[in-house]
Each structure stands twice: as C-alpha cells, then as structure tokens.
Amino acid sequence: MRSAPEKLKSLVRAEVELLGYELVGLELTGQGKGGALLRVYIDHADGIGLDDCVQVSHQISGVLDVEDPIKEQYQLEVSSPGLDRPLFEREHFVRFQGNKVRVKTHTKIEGRHRFTGVLRGVAENQVLIEEDGKLHGIAIELIDSARLIPDI
Fold first, then answer.
1. Exposure winner among 9, 24, 136, 150, fewest CB in 10 A?
2. Is the dihedral of CA 93, 147, 72, 67 positive or negative?
3. 6-79 and 90-148: identical CATH topology
4. Mind listing the pLDDT tens digit for each residue in 7-39?
5. Does the keyword field hold Cytoplasm (predicted)?
6. Sheet containing 74-79: which strands, arranged edge to edge?
C-alpha cells in the first residue's frame, strides 16, 4: 500500500499512542500542489469524539513543528476512521475479513483498478476479495486505497 514516509509514521504513532489512542493510519496527499494534507486516523475502544481529535491534533502539531518531517506547507486533519474505515495495514485486512470492501489499485489488475466485494482474508502478500462469486487475489503492494463499505 502507498503510505506516508516511515519517519513521519513513527513520529505520529508515538504521539498518538502516548495519549492512549490507536493510530489506524495516515495519508499524506497533495504534495507539490501548493500544500499538502496530512490526514491522521485514530481510534479508541471507547470511540472517538471531537475532543479526542483536538487533543491529538495539538499533540501532533507540536512535535511536527519541532521535527519538521514535512518540508512544505501542510494542513493537519485528525479524525476517527468512520463507518467507511480505511484499511492501511495487513492486520486490518485480517481483522475485517467477512466485511464488504472497496479497493483501488495503482496498477491495473485484470484490466481494471477498482474492486468491490467481500473481504475473504489475506494469503501471503495478497488480499482476497470475492466479487460476484469470483475470488480476486490483489497484491498488498499494489493497493492504493482500501475502505470498508458500511452496511446501513
């Protein structure tokens, strides 16, 4: 999966965990287009509220200002993963097996970039998605983004 630089992930993870939250993942987008957006997803067993996001945002901002891992201007956004939770790590795909997902790849697989179906698990380095009765194996390193599709 495409992800933010390791140094940035390590800095953010340390601060998020220090406050007692789980770092679900982060996205760094829009670099070189007049500024970037750093989106940080956090979670907690008791859920996430606005006050939690504000607290984590202040903590992360201070450290990022000192360490300066993002050399250009950026905006920081902290939020819960939401109902359409993004999946970043191999463990996320294992944890949410049996749920409906939407996966976008940065390289065409079987002539397309998008797959929507039921997450059937992970085998070695592949995410298994069942779509219309057909099982697709998608290499984790080819995944650009993946999200749960909530049953509403």
1. 150
2. negative
3. no
4. 899 999 999 999 999 999 999 988 666 688 999
5. yes
6. 22-29, 36-43, 74-79
Give all strands of the β-sheet with 143-148 in edge-to-edge order. Answer: 134-139, 126-131, 112-123, 100-109, 143-148
Evaluate whether 80 touches 48 at the Cβ level (below 8 Å): yes
- Which stretch of DSSP H or E encloses residue 109? strand 100-109
* Angle at the Cα of 128 from the Cα atoms of 124 and 132, rounded to 5 degrees: 160
Q: Which CATH class is domain 6-79?
A: alpha beta
CA gap 146, 58 in Å, rounded = 28
How far is it, in rounded angstroms, from Cα 19 to Cα 38? 19
CA distance 134 to 119: 12
At residue 97, the 3 state secondary structure works out as: coil
* Tokens read off for 102: 């939407």
pLDDT value of position 1 = 54
Question: How does 111-128 read in b/e, with b if 16+ C-beta sit within 10 Å?
Answer: eeeebebebbebeeebbb
